[in-house]
Amino acid sequence: MQGQARLAAGRTEQGTAPFARSHTLDVLRGLAIAGVMAIHVSQAFPSNIHAVDFAFMCGWTGVNVFYFVSAMTMCLMWTQRSGETNATGKFYIRRFLRIAPLFWLAIPVYLAINGTAPSANAPNGIGPVQVILTATFLHGFWPDSVNSVVPGDWSIAAEMTFYLVFPLLITAFGSRRHLYVALAIVLHLINVILFKPWAFALFSAYYGPGHEAFVWTTLHISFLNQLPVFLIGCALFFALRDGFTKSDAAIYAVFIALSFAADRATGSHEFNYLMINLVLGALVAGCIKLAIRLQPLEALGRNSYSMYLSHFAVIYGLRQLWPVADGLVSLLMAYVVTAALSYLVARATWHLVERHAQNLAHRLTTAGPGRSSLRPTIAATAAGMR
User: Fold this and answer.
1) Which residues contact 341 (CB under 8 A, 6 or more apart)?
2) Burial per residue of 209-248, b for 16 or more beta-carbon CB atoms within 10 angstroms, e otherwise
3) Residues 372/366, Cβ–Cβ less than 8 Å
4) Can you count the helices (H) and strands (E) in the chain?
5) What is the CA radius of gyration of the chain?
6) H helices within 195-303, ranges in order?
7) Distance between CA atoms of 145 and 132, rounded to whole angstroms?
8) pLDDT band at 367 (very low <50, low <70, confident <90, very high)
9) Contacts of 179 (CB under 8 A, 6+ apart)
10) Would you call 210 helix, strand, or coil by DSSP?
11) pLDDT 10s digits, 245-280
12) With 254 labelled, which of 219, 276, 329, 332 sits at a CA distance of 20 to 30 A?
């Protein structure tokens, strides 16, 4: 394993040149949160113009961009810290303190806003089980815990579960990027051919008639369906670091062919999702290769995690007070106001919550007099999920 870990860290000094600075990763995070806000603002403030509302609805792809960036960032930080002792334990400490404090703060806030009554995401209402599963980041494994306590928390569940398995993956696979894609293929086929049909029948019977769409949606956003995106992100990191080859194109072609065949055989409707993710992955890799920079998006990207959690509350508040009738002007105004207020909330939560959590993580993972050259706030920005 140590040899594989060293392989994962190979060519760190020169090979990580595309990732030497976090500017492009921040740009991508900024684009991602801009897209996520777009879809939710358009749902609350529709323009009633089909083309415009459809364009805003495409913002759902922002979550998948987050996944790609998260996987690449984790690989980057792991290879940069390849020489530290107890790397896995320190990784878990950093990730936990990056995500948990703000997420735990969001739980009571959204319980107060949305209440505990039955809803589209919780047909039987919210009780202690849903709250406990959410607080322990296990909510992604039970349908009526997903998005029921904290809006949009399905992606947080996927991220935290990925963090749990990431050290095992990178220690086992190292920089052998084809193994990440091969595992993505296997898991995708298991999900499409075996797990999704079985789970759909199980949970449809459990929740009863009329809840089939709810069950189908929760299975689509399940971790098993999202993990291949993270794995492709890891593969793209090492491909960007070490160079793309013809074998990369070949294995992705095999992936597409097998997914298409499985989709036609089962009617799982996940082939289109795979193709969208592959296109998004290519765009993410292209932005990194071109070292795209844009300061406004970088600012959003550096604060994207808090903006992700807070923009639902901002939209809710605006909807209660909004004086403008639905239409294009209302949509554009609401989007700008939502982005501005969410950014201000993010800056406040950085100073009140996140900064202290990241400083604690730095103290817990930095031992002795030979302290890391990364200051806590810089490390937090470089390693941030959002």
Assistant:
1) 314, 318
2) eebeebbbbbbbbbbbbbbbbbbbbbbbbbbbbeeeeeeb
3) yes
4) 19, 0
5) 21
6) 196-207, 212-220, 223-242, 246-266, 271-289, 295-302
7) 9
8) low
9) 172, 173
10) coil
11) 999 999 999 999 999 999 999 888 899 999 999 999
12) 219
Please state, in angstroms and rounded to a whole number, the distance separating the CA atoms of residues 321 and 61. 29
- Hey, what are 177's tokens? 């990027």
Phi, psi of 364 (to 5 degrees): -75, -25
Q: Using the Cα atoms of residue 249, residue 250, residue 255 and residue 260 in order, give the sign of their dihedral.
A: positive
Is 324 within 8 Å of 333 (Cβ atoms)? yes
Q: Which two tokens stand for residue 99?
A: 């995500």
Q: Note the pTM of the prediction, 2 decimals.
A: 0.91
CB–CB of 233/306 below 8 Å? no
The amino acid occupying position 314 is V
User: In terms of Cα–Cα distance, which of 117, 267, 144 is closest to 215?
Assistant: 144
Asked if residue 237 lies in contact with residue 72, where contact means CB atoms within 8 angstroms, the answer is: yes
Report long-range pairs for 241-245 (Cβ below 8 Å, ≥24 apart).
Answer: 241/11, 241/15, 241/16, 241/18, 241/19, 241/175, 242/11, 242/15, 242/175, 242/177
| Nearest in space to 256 (alpha carbons), one of 270, 235, 239, 244 | 270
Q: What is the pLDDT of residues 157-172, one digit of tens each?
A: 999 999 999 999 999 9
Q: Describe the crossing of helices 304-321 and 87-114 by its angle, rounded to 10 degrees.
A: 0
Which tops the pLDDT comparison, 383 or 123? 123
In angstroms, the CA 319 to CA 338 distance is 11
